[in-house]
C-alpha cells in the first residue's frame, strides 16, 4: 500500500512536469517556425519574472487572483460540478467590493473586511444561483454558469454606469483609503509593485480548501457526492444541498479573488469591455493542479509566471503576443491531455519498474 | 521516497542553474542602462549621440495592429527610427492590469521616453510619472498633469466636422450613422463634430448613433453597422478602433449584394486597409506625426513636459487624406475646403459635446 502511494505521488508530480516541458518545447517549435529565437524568448521570460524585485512583486500580483479562481473551480469539481462561472463570480466580487469601498464610510478595521466579505458573498451567491438551478431544476451548471458570466459582466457595467462612474469617465471613483488592502511598506520594498494582503488571503483560502474538503464531515459529503451522487443519496446524504453548497463555496473563493483585485490592485473598477479572464484561467489552473490545494497554488504560479513573463518575451525577443498565447495554450494542452504524456512516459516508467523488480 | 528526493534535488539544481544563468545576464544589463541613463540629454550633438536615444511605446488593449491609433503611433516611431537612428520598441497590453508593468518595463529600464497610447492609459501614466519623477513620459488623447509628461490631444471635433460635411453631401438617403467605441470624452468629440458637420451641410439630415462600448470587438461593430444600414442610412462614420473592422466587414458584405453603402474611416487613411470601394474617406488623426514630433523634440533637446498640446485643423493634426480625391467628387471637396477655412479662421466653432 505504501509503495502504491509512493508511485502515485511520483507519477502525479512527474506527469505535469513532463507536460509542461512538452508544452514549452511545442511553443519553441512554434517560435522557430515564426522566425524567433525560443532560447532568448524563454530567457527573457525568466528575466522578466525573476530579474528584479519590481517585476517579481508584480508576478505575485498576477498569481494571486489565479489561486482564488483555481480554488473556486477545483472546489466545485470535487463535487462533480464543472464551474465555468468563476469568471462571473469574480466580476460580482469586484463590483460588490468596489460598491462598498466607494459608498460606505467606516474606519479601516471595519471597512476593508466589510468590502472583502461583500465581494465574497456576492461571488458566492452568484455561484449558488447556478447550484440551485442544477439541484432543483436540473439545468446543467455548464450552461447556467456560462450564461451567468455574461449576465455578471453586463450587470456589473450597469451598476458601475448607474452609481459609481463619474460623467465622462470610463471607470469608477477611487475607493476610500480605509478600504485599501495594499501593503504600502512591502510595495515600497518591491519598487512600487502592487502587493496586497490578498496574497496571504489566497494562501489561507487554500488551507481552508484543504481542511474543509478533507478534514470535515461536510467536505466528506461534498466529495462523496462528487464520486457518486446516487450512492451518496442512498447513504442518506442530501445531494441537492451539497450541490448548492459546492457552488456557493466555490463562488466565495472567486468572489474574494475579485474583491482583492479591486481593493488591493486597482482601487477602482473600470467599465469592462471584455471579461478579465481570471476565471477562465482558473479552469486551467485547477486542471494543472489536479484539483488539490497545493496543486492549485503551483498551477497558479506557473500560469502567473507565463502570463506575466509574456511581456518579457515580447520585449526581449520581439515575440508577438499572439505567439506567446500559443506557448501558454500548448502547455495547458499537454497538462489537460495527460493521457498523451503518460503514453510517452510509459516505456520509460515500465523499464524502471523492471529494474526495481530485478 | 529516496528517488523522489533525488528527483527533487535534481530539479532544484537545474532550476538554480537556470536562475543563476539569467542572473548573470541581468548584471550586465543594468550597467548598460546606467551608462545610458547618465548620458546627458543629447543637445545639438552629432548623429552618434542621437543613436543612443531609446523611445518605447505601450499600446492599449487594441494592440499594435489595430488599423487605428496604436498602429499610427507605431508608424511614427518607425519613421523616427529610420530618420534619426533612434532605438524604438513597442509593448502590447492585453489587459487593464498590464498598463503599469508595461510602462514600467521601459521606465525602469532607463528608456529616454515612454509613450502611453490612448485615453485609457491616463491614470496609469500619471502614476508611473509620479513614482519616477526622473523619467520622461508622453501620452496621446489624454491630459496628464505632471511636469515630466508631454500630453498630446487632438481636436477631433474639427476633423469630424469635415467628414460630416462629406457624409451629408454624398448621402443619397436622409440618414447617416455614427458608430462609437466607449462612451468617453474623446469619442464624444468625434460624435459632436460629425453631427455638427452633417447639420451644417444639410440641416434636415438625421444621424443614427450607436455606442458599442468596446474598442476591440469587431463583432459588435458589425452588428451595430447592420442595425444602422438596416434603418436606411447609407454612410457610417466609425470612431471605435478595432471594433470598426466589423463596420467595414458589414459594408463589404452589403456592397457585394449591390447596396450602395460607405464607411468613413478613422485615425488612419483606412482606404489603404479596407479598399476604396467601401471607404469614402477617413478622419485622419496624425498620431504618427504627433509621436514623431514630440520624440524628435526630445532628440533635439527641445523637450517640453507638463504642457498639453492640442492639434487641430490649423496645426494639421487632423484632416482628410489625399486619397479621398478618388472617391469624393471635386465640388464636394471644395465645399469641405471652404468649411475648413472657416473653422481655421474661427468663423465656425465646432462643439466638443453632442448637442442632443
Fold and architecture overview:
- The complex is a heterodimer of chains A (358) and B (356).
- Chain A is mostly helical and 358 residues long.
- In chain A, 79% of the residues lie in helices and 0% in strands.
- Chain A has helices at 2-33, 38-50, 53-78, 86-103, 108-137, 141-164, 184-189, 198-215, 217-227, 229-234, 239-266, 278-288, 293-317, 321-336, 338-357.
- The longest helix of chain A has 32 residues, at 2-33.
- Chain A is globular, with a radius of gyration of 21 Å.
- Chain B is an alpha/beta fold and 356 residues long.
- Chain B has 2 domains: 47-154 and 289-311, Response regulator (Rossmann fold, 3-Layer(aba) Sandwich), CATH 3.40.50.2300; 156-284 and 321-345, Response regulator (Rossmann fold).
- Chain B is 47% helix and 17% strand.
- Chain B has helices spanning 2-38, 47-50, 69-84, 99-108, 122-131, 156-170, 185-201, 218-230, 243-256, 271-274, 287-299, 330-345; strands spanning 54-58, 87-91, 113-117, 137-140, 149-154, 175-180, 206-211, 235-239, 262-267, 279-285, 309-311, 318-319.
- A 6-stranded parallel sheet of chain B has the order 2-1-3-4-5-11, sandwiched between helices.
- The longest helix of chain B is centred in the first third of the chain and has 37 residues, at 2-38.
- Classes of the chains: A mainly alpha (358), B alpha/beta (356).
